[in-house]
Amino acid sequence: MKRIHIFLAGLMMLSACNKYVETPLPKNELVSGLVFTDDKTATAAVTGLYSDMNALNYQFANVLVSYLSAMQADEMYYYTGYADYDVFRENRLLPSSTFPQRMFAAVYAYIYQTNACIEGLSAATGLTASVKNQLLGEAYFTRSFLYFYLVNMYGDVPMITSTDYKVNGVKPRAPRAEIYNMIIANLKQAVDLMGNDYPTGLRLRPNKAAANALLARTYLYNQQWALAESTASLVINDSRYVLLKDLNTVFLANSQEAIWQLQPVNVTGGRNTWEGFTSTPGTPTASALFRLDTIQLIRKFEPNDLRLANWTGFRKTTAGATYYFPYKYKVRLGTIGAITEYSMVMRVAEQYLIRAEARIQQGKLSDGRDDLDAIRERAGLPDLSTSLTQPALLLAVEQERKVELFAEWGHRWFDLKRNKRSDAVLGPLKGANWQSTDTLYPIPSDAIRTNVNLTQNEGYK
Question: Using 50, 70 and 90 to split pLDDT, how confident is the model at 32?
Fold first, then answer.
């Protein structure tokens, strides 16, 4: 896949997102060694990835991963019939379905950009050493982040680590384990290369903690419990990150709970995040587009849980029925020029939940319960009983992850899948449409058409 034009477009998007770097690249700059001849242009090349990922609406890094997976799980539905969303809610995805194709193509385009940055930076000789190391670390982190979502959405996928389009265009699918090995290796490189501080002071570019946070999550998914625990602890013990007491401050720009955020790019009319714009009704009486499942999510909150009160909103229909919508992001349209919310990608609360699960899996029940209680106390809930057994505590982890991380980056969908709970939880809800193979998206028909070595996932052949 030859995507030099896509990479150039990503670099040009930087002019709309100037907090990442002060000097954007010249608009006629192609992918070449010239991009990596000085610190400013090299920084622009890497940070252009983040603005590109969040530049367009209803794309991989805003709304799609979070909301589509929420609909395919048991969290959310769209307010009216819409075929491209209904196929997720009803588990009727096809290889030709719009959004699986859009995400697959977009993520590989970002991976191409990342590979170009890694190649250019590795060969560069005129950069300040500290800048070069930080940028290389960011690129390795970003590639790992992208592959983490590919492997969890599609299963085995082609492992593209160069810009050689002739080779890449016929790459077969690599086994999931091989992809995870690459993710872990790249994240370890990122940890070694990046600094602890954020390069701009804002939490918009990955740092060492971001790499450790994703590494802890990856270890958890691979059942490497001791490594998940120790790596999550590195983040939790870093004083930069705080489990904020006020739930309404968690998703603000540069929140102390944030490990990595994406800055909004399309801010026309006072828009902040695309998540806030799409999920928050325009007026006190307007309908919400994306609604939370009342039975499977809203009623699962314990009484007096502050997350229900602060992170969900509700409306009443003319018939008197009540429905709820995601309200972690409060701003639909704010003051033009004043951005108060950034898209949250990774936050420290997840690290507490990772460490809790990893500790409980190792039989460290008291320590794991302490981590869960930290999350619960912030939500205004009592501590868990000290008499809970390991199986009961693992169910408590599942519950806390459900009500803490809802509508965020596919956590619920992935949790059910990795814990082999999808059939038990979703089977009864989805009925005749459900089959175990629905835990993966289909490999897009367009990709199979252009790569003779690609095969299709079971259930979609």
Answer: low
Tokens 């609604």, residue? 291
Q: Quote the CA–CA distance of 212 and 259 in Å, as a whole number.
A: 10
pLDDT the model gives residue 1: 42
All residues at 6 or more sequence positions from 387 whose CB lies less than 8 Å from its CB, including other chains: none
* 263, 54 Cβ separation under 8 angstroms: yes
The residue length of the chain stands at 461
Of 62, 44, 401, which Cα lies nearest the Cα of 262?
A: 62
Say yes or no to pLDDT of 85 above 70. yes
- The secondary structure of the chain, three-state, reads CCCHHHHHHHHHHHHHCCCCCCCCCCCCCCCCHHHHCCHHHHHHHHHHHHHHHCCCCCECCEEHHHHHHHHHCCCEEECCCCHHHHHHHCCCCCCCCHHHHHHHHHHHHHHHHHHHHHHHHHHCCCCCHHHHHHHHHHHHHHHHHHHHHHHHHHCCECCCCCCCHHHHCCCCCECHHHHHHHHHHHHHHHHHHCCCCCCCCCCCCCCHHHHHHHHHHHHHHCCCHHHHHHHHHHHHCCCCCCCCCCHHHCCECCCCCEEEEECCCCCHHHCCCHHHHHHCCCCCCCCCCEEECCCCCHHHCCCCCHHHHHHEEEEECCCCCEEEEECCCCCCCCCCCCCCECEEEEEHHHHHHHHHHHHHHCCCHHHHHHHHHHHHHHCCCCCCCCCCCHHHHHHHHHHHHHHHCCCCCCHHHHHHHHCCCHHHHHHHHHHHHCCHHHHCCCCCHHHHHHCCCCCCCCCCC
Q: What is the pLDDT of residue 175?
A: 98
pLDDT of residue 58: 84
Give the residue-averaged pLDDT of 33-62. 90
Q: Are 97 and 446 in contact (CB under 8 A)?
A: no
Which amino acid type is present at position 256?
Q
Sign of CA dihedral 401, 403, 408, 411: positive
Q: Are 313 and 241 in contact (CB under 8 A)?
A: no
**56 or 305: whose pLDDT is higher?**
305
Structure tokens at 397: 């982890």
Q: How far apart are CA 461 and CA 457, in angstroms?
A: 7
